[in-house]
Amino acid sequence: MPDVRLASPQGKWILLTTVLGSSMAMLDSTVVNVALPRIGEDLDADLAALQWTVNAYMLTLAGLILLGGSLGDRYGRRRVFVIGVVWFALASLLCGLAPNVGVLIAARALQGIGGALLTPGSLALIQASFHPDDRAKAVGLWSGFGGIGAAVGPFLGGWLVDGPGWRWVFLLNVPLALLCAPIAVRHVPESGDGTKHGRFDVLGAFLGAAALALVTYALIEAQQVSVTVWITAIAGVAAGVAFVYVERHRADPMMPLDIFRSRQFTAVNLVTLCVYAAFSGFFFLAALQLQVVSGYSALGAGTALLPTTALMLLFSARSGALADRIGPRIPLTVGPLLCAAGILLMLRVGENATYVTDVLPALLVLGLGMVTLVAPLTATVLASVDTARAGLASGVNNAAARAAGLVAVAALPLLAGMGEDAYRSADAFDAAFDRAMPICAGVLVLGALIAFATVRPLPPDCRKPECLHHGSVTTPPLEGVRSRGRLEVDGKGNAEG
């Protein structure tokens, strides 16, 4: 049984290295959006290339995150975590040195692979290292400090873009990795359990990633209708069907489909798809709108978006406590509706928008809606399956949110009629932004309707989330599970009792 105490020097080193590792991935997911206009200008990239700059990372991360934890269980959690940190740093270095947008996109895909190794690995190390009496507190501190990293991300990214340049958004990861990896090697105990697992579901991971990649390509390139786009779209659907077939028939699948026999779990994941698709599409376009149309600097745009993350950090725990008393149905219905209202208020943000009267009210309403729904959503996901599968349920829900964001960033510019050079023209982008925001709001309303129609009260003895403070605006938190006084990590990089 692991026996490291949180108050010990080793415990503090373990917490530091896991926070550093997860913060690298979380920072990267929040800072890149504010750098997109400068990246496009410097590398002469069209809108499709900017979409791929975001989506190449999300594609490999979403496709491989369920597999990442399995590698740690088999080959050693510390070893795979350190490999992920080093991999992420090297890919970040390649991003920072990229001579053209093609190299940048390829490097971003490599970054996502590193993220898929270190993101579940950071939580797995905490759960595998700390004494059971300290584990919940360690997870809480890990999630809280990670949320602070997410909050700092847009501000830091904007400062780097306006100062030394957008390349430092990626190069910043290198010194973080140089600090994180040696601490992990020196102070984090190795752990793993290869005896619990059969063969890796490499085919399932490949088919899932291929389906996402092909569909994303078809959506991004669909403005130029061609035979290639149609063939890619059909191939993407076929890969998705093959993924479902393989997962249904494998003895040890990456994503066991029988978990969806729980109607509540299926319904909450549909809500997740709706809300996180809207969030990802919104934050992708909002960072551009503030800079291209409203004339904000990168630092100004990054700072402007901070209220949503700050509200989540400050009040997510209280929202979870409220949902415990009144049940999840009302928060999961009201939350998306508030978010939809906040996004519609962003229609006021145009060429002459002022922050206090136009931008801030929209973001406060959006942030209030996110506070209302995120904690109850996580609690409902965990409570809708058997305790022994709560870790898997959290991983599936997190991957679903990332996949929804991936598709949203690909599809929203198409649905809003954005041309390849829309972000180079304030008038063209503003008009497309005004068409995109009602789409995001409509998807959120759909999520609210699904929640109202399907979500039921939680059982009184259900699993409670441990990540009480959450700051990421584009994904729900990864969660472990406590059962019979101890935490273990299952084959998906999550916790299993």
In brief:
The protein has 497 residues and is mainly alpha-helical. It has helices spanning 9-43, 47-75, 77-97, 101-129, 132-162, 167-171, 173-187, 202-221, 227-249, 263-293, 298-304, 306-326, 329-345, 355-383, 390-415, 426-454.
What does it look like?
It is found in: Cell membrane. It is a single chain. The chain has 497 residues and is mainly alpha-helical. The chain contains 16 helices and no strands. α1 (9-43) runs antiparallel to α7 (173-187), α8 packs antiparallel against α9 (227-249) and α14 (355-383) runs antiparallel to α15 (390-415). The chain is globular, with a radius of gyration of 21 Å.
Radius of gyration using CA atoms only: 21 Å
Average pLDDT number: 86
Apparent shape: globular
- Work out the helicity level: over 70%
Distance between the termini: 13 Å
Low-confidence stretches: 481-497
Q: Which structural class best describes the helix and strand composition?
A: mainly alpha
Biggest beta-sheet profile:
none
**Strand residue percentage:** under 5%
Total count of helical runs of at least 4 residues: 16
Order of helices and strands: HHHHHHHHHHHHHHHH
The count of DSSP E runs of length 2 or more, i.e. the number of strands, is: 0
Record keyword descriptors for this entry.
mainly alpha; disordered C terminus; 497 residues; 16 helices; globular
How is the secondary structure organized here?
Blueprint: H1 9-43, H2 47-75, H3 77-97, H4 101-129, H5 132-162, H6 167-171, H7 173-187, H8 202-221, H9 227-249, H10 263-293, H11 298-304, H12 306-326, H13 329-345, H14 355-383, H15 390-415, H16 426-454
Biased composition (Basic and acidic residues): 481-497
Protein name: MFS transporter
Pfam family, one: MFS_1
